[in-house]
Amino acid sequence: MTQAPADLSHIASRDKAEILAQALPYIRKFHGKTMVIKYGGNAMTDPALQQAFAEDVVLLKLVGINPIVVHGGGPQIDAALAKIGKKGTFIQGMRVTDQETMDVVEWVLGGEVQQDIVGLINAAGGKAVGLTGRDGAMIRARKLKLHDLNDPTVEHDVGQVGEIESIDPSVVKALQDDQFIPVISPIGFGEQNESYNINADLVASKLAEILKAEKLMLLTNIKGVLDKAGNLLTELTSRRIDELVEDGTISGGMLPKIAGAIDAAKCGVNAVHIVDGRVPHVLLLEILTDQAFGTMIRAR
């Protein structure tokens, strides 16, 4: 059930104007810049958070910032697999994807989930267009060779899981220039026209790198990267990340997220943020205020 929007009637008009004025330096700073947003977790499944996300994306576009949405859909894929009697399995955070699972992934990500997001953004006043990696020959991929973290000589077969060979952003740039908001499903294609399921965090990170995005925003279901005591780490460097992986603090599904984030930071993305998608309007809070949310990752 969708929650009612917050009642702001108690805030005086002058105070509302002051709040808007506070955002002006950030709007000026980021005007014309590209923000790549990985959309997933609770923000994708809670109706009130869905609406808040769509409103944030539309507002960013209207003030001259160029948002690009790359989405996941893990829970939706699991639900669709359950309907055909299959259970998802994972190795080192990657979904094992046989041909039957790949068919489900394409149907769920490129169809149901993508169109839901496009609809939400359009209903909020934006002009969203859904794409997969096939559109405009955008994401070329090859089969992922997943080496065991503990024994690099061991290679896990995860099926039709892909790693990115190249991204051609032409179609994304054309849509941006025409005032559209691209919504991208992380599905790539190979030499034989085969489909590949690619981790959405990695697609978002690589796209941000190629577009030289101002920010890469990774929405997740936690406050950010936490230490072993559960405390939020507000800033991380490449060296500190290596230490946290080695001692097991960063593991599982956080591994590809962090790997993509650090690559993007090293390759020219100005700031990478892992933020809590459970916070309403977290995109506006992170981009248009001086309040830090989540973990910021820097190359050094």
Whole-angstrom Rg: 19 Å
Say what oligomer this is.
Answer: single chain
Helix content: 40-55%
N-to-C series of helices and strands: HEHHEHEEHEEEEEHEEEHEEHHEHE
Low-confidence stretches: none
Arithmetic mean pLDDT: 88
SS-based structural class? Answer: alpha/beta
Tags for this model:
300 residues, 21% strand, 10 helices, 16 strands, two-stranded antiparallel ribbon, alpha/beta, globular, eight-stranded mixed sheet
Any overview of this molecule?
It is a single chain. It is globular, with a radius of gyration of 19 Å. It is of the alpha/beta class and 300 residues long. It is 40% helix and 21% strand. The chain is built from 10 helices and 16 strands. A hairpin with a 7-residue loop joins strand 7 and strand 8. The strands form 5 sheets. An 8-stranded mixed beta sheet has the order 5-10-2-1-13-15-16-14, sandwiched between helices. The chain has a two-stranded antiparallel sheet with strand order 3-4. Helix 4 (74-83) packs across helix 5 and helix 7 (200-210) packs parallel to helix 9 (254-266).
